[in-house]
Amino acid sequence: MVSEPAITTDIITPFMIHDAPVRGRMVRLAQSISTIIARHDYPDTVSRTLAEVLVVVSMMASNLKDEGVFTLQVQSKGGISLLVADATHQGHLRGYAQFDAEAMASPTATDLKSLFGEGYLAITLDQGDASQRYQGVVPLEGNSIAEAIEYYFVHSHQLEVRIHVAAGKQSNAGEAEQWLAGGMYMEKMPDVLHADEDIWNRSLALFGTIKDAELLDDTLTHEDLLHRLFHEDGVWVYTPHPLFDQCRCSESKIANTLAQMGDSAIDEMQIDGHIIVNCQFCNSEYNLKADDIKRMASN
Ligand SMILES: [Zn+2]
User: Fold this and answer.
1) How much distance in Å is there from the Cα of 281 to the middle of ligand 1?
2) Is residue 225, in this structure, part of any structural domain at all?
3) What is the pLDDT of residue 133?
4) Domain assignment of residue 27, given as a range
5) Contact residues for 126 (Cβ-Cβ < 8 A; gap 6+)
6) The last residue of a domain, from among 206, 229, 245
7) What is the pLDDT of residues 75-103, one digit of tens each?
8) Alpha carbon of 63 to ligand 1 centroid (Å)
9) Is the domain of 140 the same as that of 278?
10) 228 and 265 share a domain?
11) Which residues of the chain fall short of a pLDDT of 50?
12) What is the distance in A from the centroid of ligand 1 to the CA of 94?
């Protein structure tokens, strides 16, 4: 009997260090981000940054309880002026960017400050109704997206976390461009009395040895990498969850948003009785009748 090859991409795998207040998640994306990136046709620097942010949001959303969306937005005065990515508790991912095409076509450096300049990082956690909406905003700090998120957790939640993210393009002759991105997240659980600082410090040291190549090696299973890193103290590796390229836009959602803008705004936007809306996340085009939207607004 031939066993199925293990799935190593487009999944997220939770883990926990044995008997220690240390837990984390590992993610590797391939098909999902390649599809998202192919849809947009951004310069490689922008695509890589979007891939990294998609890794981060997928790691954060997996911690949502039942239902919800984790959104990360970076706004800046630099080359990439806006980057938005979100992930749902079901593992649906989407994202887009706005940028200065000239500056991003041949960037001089790819650290956070060179890509974004001065900016802000906003995290939004939406768990259904308005009462469960949380937003935190911090200045963009650090040299990478990973460091900026670490800063956010320390600053806004007094949480000790470590994040490592990598992304890169694989070009095989004759094949469609394929992107790979991977990440690992680790946190010291704040609510556990078990105060073994040694294990946390040891886990931090081991976490520091993760190589980009390991996160991007799609022949290496998550379980094997986690055991390779943490075998000394032991690691529990949980069942992975799948991650997908999946936008949440729909004609009814767009019609609802337009209806709330009022008749005069609808009149301004319509051309020959139609309003054309493009979803920035997935490029889907919606063609709505202005009269239908006005009728919705009056109901
Ligand atoms: Zn969409």
Assistant:
1) 5
2) yes
3) 85
4) 11-245
5) 68, 69, 70, 71, 132, 133
6) 245
7) 999 999 999 999 999 999 999 999 999 98
8) 24
9) no
10) no
11) none
12) 8
Q: Are residues 154 and 286 in the same domain?
A: no
Q: Would you state the pLDDT for residue 298?
A: 80
When divided into structural domains, the chain yields a total of 2
CA atoms within 13 A on the CB side of 77: 3
Name the DSSP letter for residue 177: -
Tell how far the Cα of 227 is from the centroid of ligand 1, in angstroms: 38
pLDDT at 76: 96
In this structure, are residues 59 and 27 in contact, taking their beta carbons and an 8 Å threshold? yes
Domain of 292, CATH number, reads: 3.90.1280.10
Per-residue tokens: 103:
């500056």
Mean pLDDT of the chain: 91
Residue 2 lies in a domain: no
* 110: nearest Cα among 188, 28, 43, 190: 43
Are 273 and 182 found together in one domain?
no
Give the integer Cα–Cα distance in Å for 182 and 167. 6
Tell whether 177 and 260 lie within a shared domain.
Answer: no
Contacts of 264 (CB under 8 A, 6+ apart): none
Handedness of CA 166, 244, 23, 240 (dihedral sign): negative
What is the structure's pLDDT at 58?
97
Going from the Cα of 279 to the center of ligand 1, the distance in angstroms, rounded, reads 5
Per-residue pLDDT, 193: 60
Kindly give the distance from the C-alpha atom of residue 248 to the centroid of ligand 1, in angstroms, as a whole number: 6
Cα 200 from Cα 207, distance rounded (Å): 10
236 with 265, same domain? no
Ligand 1 centroid – CA 260 distance (Å): 19
| Burial letters 228-245, b for 16+ CB under 10 A, else e | ebbeebebebeebbebbb
Q: Are 263 and 291 in contact (CB under 8 A)?
A: no
Cα–Cα nearest to 55, from 26, 77, 24, 84? 26
